[in-house]
Target: Adenosine deaminase
Amino acid sequence: MSWKDYPKAELHLHLEGGAPPAFIRGLASEKHVDISKIFTEQGTYAYHGFDHFLEVYEAACTVLQGPEDFHRLTLAVLEESAANGVVYSETFLSPDFCGGGDLAAWRDYLAAIESAADEAEAKFGITLRGIVTCIRHFGPDKAKAPAICAAETKGRFITGFGMAGAEMVGRPGDYSWAFDAAREAGLGITCHAGEWGGPDMIADTLRDLRPSRIGHGVSAIRDLALVDQLAEDGVTLEVCPGSNVFLGAAGIKVGDWHAHPIEKLRAREVKVTISTDDPPFFGTTMTKEFEMLEKTFGWNEDDFAELNRNALDAAFCDAATKEAVA
Ligand code: ADE
Ligand code: ZN
Model:
């Protein structure tokens, strides 16, 4: 069956990483910035491997220069998500890629993103919530300001705090100041771990940053005691199978969907959910994720309904929003 119109909830989408290449090229030409080398001749993003992906990602972000650009970006990303049946989405917002280090500027950016989200809700029927996110490879000191930003903007729209970026930089505990501040402010907590790092990185993240969700978490499969702990503690994994298979994360052979551990994690009762991460970078959409999961593991409507329930249970929005989108 076609999964395009099947209603979906997505917890792990980087707003800048959702930027269609044509949108970024359009902004680059408006602003007379030459970033032609980050595109292939066919017009897709050009990179080799995860570290280079992060560089190309940051280069693409250089053309997002003001709140109005983020307003347009949000509309473009949500139109595409809604066209793939997404009715509820949580997106990572990285202040380091918008407005530099200035809290007053961030407020303007976040307000522009929120107003675009409201517009998209009315136009396309998709609800968006934001997770302010620090970037791990910028170091622990640079993580503090996004946490303060998250705490100060917490509300209907900003509901969580997280960390993305190069996972092998530092240890989770180095970032505990930022996560403690965000948790004390009442924000939902998530953190990328177990995409490139091993089970020890997931275990340390759980111990030191105390998230209710882990971004990716797929390397847990190498330590079954940890898998059982995730299941027992009800930690939800934001699994991004297409991203993992495209990049070869957690030791998965590039292109090999059958090597992805999501089915094994689920069989041991870990709460898993499905997301796209950075869809145009990995040639994916939520529709394609569902199609590949059906094709690879034989998942059907009952399976997808369970994954949607897991996502809404673990979502950081309030109960009324959950009810409205369920
Ligand atoms: N930022 C954008 N996509 C990411 C990913 N897959 N892992 C870590 N940081 C990211
Ligand atoms: Zn991610």
